[in-house]
Write a structure and sequence with these properties.
By secondary structure, the chain is an alpha/beta fold. Helix content is about 20%, strand content about 35%. The protein has one helix and ten strands, in the order ββββββββββα. Strands 1-4-7-9 form a four-stranded parallel β-sheet, with no helix packed on it. It has a four-stranded parallel β-sheet with strand order 2-5-8-10, with no helix packed on it. The model has no long low-confidence stretch (mean pLDDT about 85).
């Protein structure tokens, strides 16, 4: 008999403040539409058979995923949000600029 591999699909789950260590593993696991918040995602050159599709990564240790087909690692349609502190600073800057522009128009 041939070797049988079971693919595990994780759908619409939220992972918060977790360490997901995929290093050196052949997983046959797919994460679809999951949310990762303040997580540490560890992947190395031995990681195989792993997919992230339509997931959101917020305040995690990764800001992008670019994998080759040679290890069967797929990353498609994922969103990488900047850390909350960076987004807050950007919002504060834009509000300050908008208020300054508004005050400048009323003089």
């Amino acid at each position: 008999m041939g070797q049988y591999f079971e693919e595990r699909v994780i759908f619409e789950e939220r992972f918060q403040a977790r360490c997901l260590d995929f290093r050196g593993r052949s997983l046959f696991t797919r994460y679809d539409k999951c949310e990762f918040v303040k997580c540490e995602v560890l992947i190395d050159e031995q990681t195989e058979h792993l997919a992230f599709t339509g997931c959101t990564f917020e305040d995690c240790n990764i800001t992008e995923m670019a994998f080759g087909e040679d290890r069967s690692i797929v990353a498609d349609g994922n969103v990488f949000k900047q850390p909350i502190a960076v987004r807050t600073a950007d919002l504060d800057r834009r509000l300050t600029e908008a208020l300054s522009a508004q005050l400048g128009n009323h003089r």
